[in-house]
Fold:
Amino acid sequence: MNINLYDLLKCLSSAQDLVNKELTNHHHQVAYLSYRIAEHINLSYEEKRNIILAGLLHDIGALAMNESLAEIEDSSATAYNHAYVGSMLLSEFEPLKQAAELIKYHHHPWNAGTPAHNIPIGSHILHIADRICVLMRPEENILLQVPQLVEHIKEKRGTQFSPELVDCVEELQHLEYIWLDLMYNYPMNQLDYPWISSLAALNIDEIIDFSMIFSRIIDFRSSFTANHSAGVAKTAERLAQLFGYSEHECKMMLIAGYLHDLGKLAIDNSILEKPSGLTVKEYHIVKSHPFYTYRILNVIEGFDIISKWAAYHHEKPDGSGYPFHLDDSNLPLGSKIVAVADVFTAITENRPYRKGMSDEACISILRNLAAENALCSNVVFVLLDHFSEIRKICADAQIKAGIEYARFKDSLKHK
Ligand SMILES: [Fe+2]
Ligand SMILES: [Fe+2]
Ligand SMILES: [Fe+2]
Structure:
């Protein structure tokens, strides 16, 4: 199983759009325009590669912090913060280390950067591309807007923006196709050159690492779920081992566990943080999350099985689950495993508003759900047969994720 990092990020950056609907396509646009600038000033393949990857993820820190992109892009006080947080989260993943460095400074003004702080040119490119994309007005013809956009950045030549890059944008202004791609096409599709596809092939262990890091971005949005996916992933992996899955399949199960709630990025934080009493509308919004998980993961080449294992975690063997209403006969065992791991983790974990359930209460709930055919009884029985072992595996994973969450919280104080 080899997945291309670029393909993976292309899909996941659409997931980022789920949270910030006011800036749809923002990450794709910034990646595209940054790339065109980098190309024009003849940066190396290596630099262009890192700029694209960074562009696709540059505001991910805001996502984890639950900040509205439209707001942070306006205020430099919080802008540094999301850049720092995003960079911190991503730098843990080796193939994104250099991109993370670019993200860290994507709001730094040029005259506060070079050469004193040695801020890479890639960060300055992201900065100028980001500003242009934020200023574009979707309702107005883009070619009419270009002269004003260029005028705007020229005013900040040598202060906010690097003079060389402002000149570059000026030179690009007559190339209509760039602006038309940027505004009206799904811009990253215009960059499917062979060299990008060969950017970085990830092996399965790297995909696991990346999924784990991405699960933090999903979970850290709310203290209620801060270590949830870590527990689900490890529980599901152990169950898969007990069902005799191959080593490779167990690794796929880990990925499915880490990403099962990916669609929660579409749910507003104020809803996520509500311990109970959802309105009907909020309830429908929450219910849509496995659907989004499926739609995002399913388009990633090579994620066919993983997307089903991950996204069917609220389906039930009796057919009363959602959103696809599959039943025992057409639910893969892998999906049933994730469903059990999800319920088990949810009822045993501590939430700020309640303590996790005792072993006895948890066992009795799982038994009842199996009896009602709301969870697969085969999977539940295997879990109950190894209850204390799995309880410990899940708790250990959650403690580890909890430490990361504390580190993340701490980084929010950084200015
Ligand atoms: Fe930003
Ligand atoms: Fe941005
Ligand atoms: Fe879920």
Notes: Residues 3-201 form a domain with the Hypothetical protein af1432 fold (CATH 1.10.3210.10). The chain has a mean pLDDT of 89.
